[in-house]
Specification:
- It is built from 1 helix and 7 strands; from the N terminus they run βαββββββ.
- The protein is mainly β.
- Strands 1-2-4-3 form a 4-stranded mixed beta sheet, with no helix packed on it. A 3-stranded antiparallel beta sheet has the order 5-6-7, with no helix packed on it.
- A hairpin with a 2-residue loop joins strand 5 and strand 6.
- The longest helix is centred in the N-terminal third of the chain and has 10 residues.
- The termini are far apart.
Length: 113
């Protein structure tokens, strides 16, 4: 029997403000990949992410500002970042593993198309 892939996606509505809750929620620790949408992180956040780290996970941010963005936490021995799309009202991160492609997608309310 093949091992199962465990993933989690949540609209976090401000990652930095909810980080204590994320770290306290043991359900997240069972996931191989965790994606949070609506992170509210701006483009300069990459330089200051020590408070956003989760033990055992690599962090990838696809930031676009207030009310937008994706944060992907993944096991670096299982997943590789393939591509990001970062537009004003749409962010997408594509991750692959040996047998799976996972697409994290966030579209903010302002995108009418």
């Amino acid at each position: 029997m093949q091992d199962s892939l465990k993933m989690s996606y949540l609209n976090i509505n401000s990652l930095r403000a909810k980080m204590d809750d994320v770290k306290a929620d043991l359900n997240f620790s069972f996931a191989d990949i965790i994606i949070f949408g609506e992170t509210w992180l701006d483009e300069t956040t990459e330089a200051n992410v020590s408070d956003l780290q989760l033990p055992g996970y690599q962090l990838h941010l696809n930031n676009a500002g207030r009310g937008k963005g994706l944060a992907t936490y993944y096991k670096s021995d299982q997943f590789t970042l393939v591509r990001d799309i970062t537009q004003q009202d749409l962010q997408m991160s594509v991750m692959t593993s040996a047998n799976t492609t996972i697409i994290g997608f966030y579209r903010s309310r302002n995108n009418a198309s």
